[in-house]
UniProtKB/TrEMBL annotation:
Residues 9-116 form the Guanylate cyclase domain. Keywords: Membrane, TPR repeat, Transmembrane, Transmembrane helix. PANTHER family: ADENYLATE CYCLASE, TERMINAL-DIFFERENTIATION SPECIFIC-RELATED, PH-SENSITIVE ADENYLATE CYCLASE RV1264. This is Tetratricopeptide repeat protein.
């Protein structure tokens, strides 16, 4: 017998009191059953359902669409309520089934049967999974009844009644059916009586527990909700599906980061474990997390199936697992469902705002989503290569063409322009003007998206609008509590204010959420440089270099910290050991100048000046080389020129503390420049 698995909405119906009626009036009972079956067959076919079997006075049917299953149930009850009415009960659940032409089996079938057993005549009861899919369906309303423990079902299931069309809603107290047995009155009496004794014993036990916890290092009962989403496995084994699968992982991370009481490791650190052979415990220890989400993705034409598994990483124990099937267009719905289920598994109660943010579906265009994910891939490759940034921008704009209301695509365009500034690839003034348009467009589309406020905060940050930037960034964190980039920008702002405590507080949050990102480690080392905490920076970067000894950014930031300690020869050795820009870097030119190697310094200066004739080079970098050569007038001239181009935000905010330019602290032109950006 051929069998296959599929996701389906399962509906059970039966006629209340049919057996009793059969005993009283057999001909009437047969007539009612005949009308019931005829109505059922016509209505089920109209809503694309499939009748699996009749059994006595009941039916079992399946639907590919949850919405159509509920709409069918409503129409059935409307028909059965017409005189002479037929007292029918209906229960619906959705889940994975093993299906064949002869029958269907699976836990979902058993649960649907048990839900139907709770119903009363004229009612339609549905599970929480059905109810979740009805939330955005404005013409179907439901009412929560109770959370029920069914026989042979290992989880408590919230039950809802459909209220649309005046359908009957059972009273919570009247619920009967295939539930776990309740305690007898006699047992309840003795149970209550025994509570007095148990209460006394509990006091003793609690006192002992308190003593043990005070005198040992026992972990708290409830673990901190820290989680990493390991890159999902691509079951299709092709490059296109691989990009899509990585995109799913990223989006689930984004969805989960909207949950206030959950700390989610960022995509950069999570992606280190793609195709990793490390055990769950090893990954948990390296990232200092308590929970791990893993899974797989399979795409077939326009259908997608996601398998997800939540693991207690410290105990290496499965907490929850489920399958999700839907069309590519509904991919965000799957991600929302995964986020809700994980919150439930971790006993996190979601606020109304969190539910609203998680349930938001950014686009219903599969083409827009695909273009957007490809754009993110180029944007996140790092290194600031112009060709990659151009591809990212084009793909985000392509996504907007497919869906002009796709908020995230506009954020993607703005973030791409910000990368030009970070890597010094274009004039900040020009890029900030370009970035403001898509950022404000995104805000107009969705004012409840953390990414929108994150990019607006970045724009304000580069414009030296400190207070505005802080407001935007804190709003971004309010919406996405695990938003690493927002914490990073806040850390920089506090660094340039000279507030070491708040700087470290925000950077430590960054490194907790993204512990394997060399970019953010490098940022913190550079911030220590501006605060003249050079040795702190060296100690921090050395830990990361033990893990990533050939990382060019880490090598660069350590060399820069050494230059702050005036260990120029050691810095030069590190700068020249890098696999990129080992002989043309501007900080290398500065160090050559400080050690009296003027010819080498001037060669790098000439290289940068010649390069500036062809492409944008931040004037600050050229000013730095002039400082190494002791040419203060030229250094000042280029600092002033850099400001005219919009400045290099990170460098310019640090001018007040930058040891390289300390000799200018009483120079009127330098003071005037600082006043412009203060």
């Amino acid at each position: 017998m051929a069998r296959n698995r599929q996701l389906a909405a399962i509906m059970f119906t039966d006629i209340e009191g049919y057996t009793s009626l059969m005993q009283k009036d057999e001909s009437q009972a047969i007539s009612i059953r005949g009308r019931h079956r005829k109505t059922f067959e016509i209505t089920t076919e109209a809503f694309n359902g499939q009748l699996i079997q009749y059994f006595g006075d009941g039916t079992l049917s399946v639907f590919k669409s949850t919405i159509e299953a509920v709409e069918c149930a409503i129409e059935l009850q409307k028909a059965f309520l017409e005189e002479p009415n037929i007292p029918v009960r209906i229960g619906i659940h959705v889940g994975d089934i093993i299906y064949s032409k002869e029958d269907i089996i699976g836990d979902a079938v058993n649960i649907a049967s048990r839900i139907e057993s709770l119903a009363v005549a004229g009612s339609v009861l549905v599970s929480d999974k059905i109810n979740d899919q009805l939330r955005n369906k404005g013409n179907i309303n439901t009412e929560f009844i109770d959370a029920v423990d069914f026989k042979n079902v290992n989880r408590t299931i919230p039950i809802f009644a459909v209220t649309t069309g005046g359908l009957k809603v059972p009273e919570k107290e009247s619920l009967k059916g295939k539930t776990k047995p309740k305690e007898s009155k006699e047992f309840e009496f003795y149970r209550k009586k025994s509570l007095y004794v148990l209460g006394f014993l509990s006091i003793i036990i609690l006192a002992l527990a308190y003593y043990v916890m005070k005198t040992s290092n026992v972990d708290s009962i409830k673990k901190e909700a820290t989680l990493v989403v390991i890159p999902f496995e691509n079951m299709n084994n092709d490059d296109a599906s691989d990009i899509f699968t990585d995109g799913i992982t990223e989006d689930i991370i984004t969805h989960l980061s909207k949950i206030q009481n959950l700390q989610v490791i960022s995509r950069v650190s999570a992606m280190h474990y793609k195709n990793s052979n490390k055990t769950i415990k090893e990954i948990a220890n390296e990232l200092n997390v308590n929970y791990l989400l893993e899974g797989s993705v399979r795409v077939n034409n326009n259908q997608v199936r996601i398998n997800a598994n939540l693991v207690d990483a410290k105990e290496d124990k499965n907490l929850w697992a489920d399958n999700y099937d839907n069309t590519l267009v509904e991919i965000f719905k799957i991600q929302s469902d995964v986020s809700r289920d994980i919150a439930s598994a971790l006993q996190i109660t979601l606020s109304d705002n969190e539910v609203l943010r998680i349930d938001n579906q950014p686009t219903k265009s599969a083409e827009a989503y695909t273009a957007f994910k490809e754009g993110q891939r180029y944007l996140h490759q790092g290194g600031g290569k112009v060709e990659e940034l151009i591809k990212a921008e084009d793909l985000f704009k392509k996504a907007i063409e497919y869906d002009p209301e796709f908020c995230r695509a506009y954020v993607g365009v703005a973030e791409t322009y910000m990368e030009y500034i970070f890597w010094g690839r274009e004039s900040p003034k020009k890029m900030l003007e370009l970035a403001s348009i898509p950022a404000l467009t995104a805000l107009a589309i969705n004012s409840n998206d953390g990414g929108v406020y994150g990019v607006l905060g970045a724009i304000s940050y580069y414009k030296y609008e400190k207070e505005v930037a802080i407001r935007y960034l804190k709003k971004a964190i309010e919406i996405n509590p695990s938003y690493v980039g927002a914490y990073n920008k806040l850390a920089w702002i506090y660094a340039f204010e000279g507030d070491l405590k708040l700087m470290e507080e925000n950077f430590n949050k960054v490194l907790k959420l993204d512990p394997l990102s060399s970019k953010y480690v490098g940022d913190m080392v550079q911030a220590y440089y501006y605060l003249n905490e050079f040795q702190k920076g060296i100690d921090l970067v050395d830990k990361s270099l033990n893990r990533f000894p050939n990382d060019n950014m880490l090598i660069w930031t350590k060399a820069t910290a050494l230059s702050g300690l005036e260990k120029y020869d050691a810095a030069i050795s590190l700068y020249t050991s890098r696999s990129v820009a080992s002989n043309t870097n501007w900080m290398l030119g500065y160090c050559y100048g400080k050690t009296g190697q003027y010819d080498k310094a001037k060669r790098i200066l000439d290289y940068q000046l010649d390069k500036n004739k062809k492409v944008y080079v931040p004037a600050y970098m050229i000013a730095t080389i002039y400082m190494g050569l002791g040419e203060k007038e030229n250094a000042l001239k280029y600092l002033e020129r850099d400001y005219e181009f919009g400045g290099q935000g990170l460098f310019f905010w640090g001018l007040k503390h930058d040891i390289k330019f300390r000799v200018f602290q009483n120079e009127p032109r330098f003071i005037a420049l600082l006043n412009k950006i203060d």
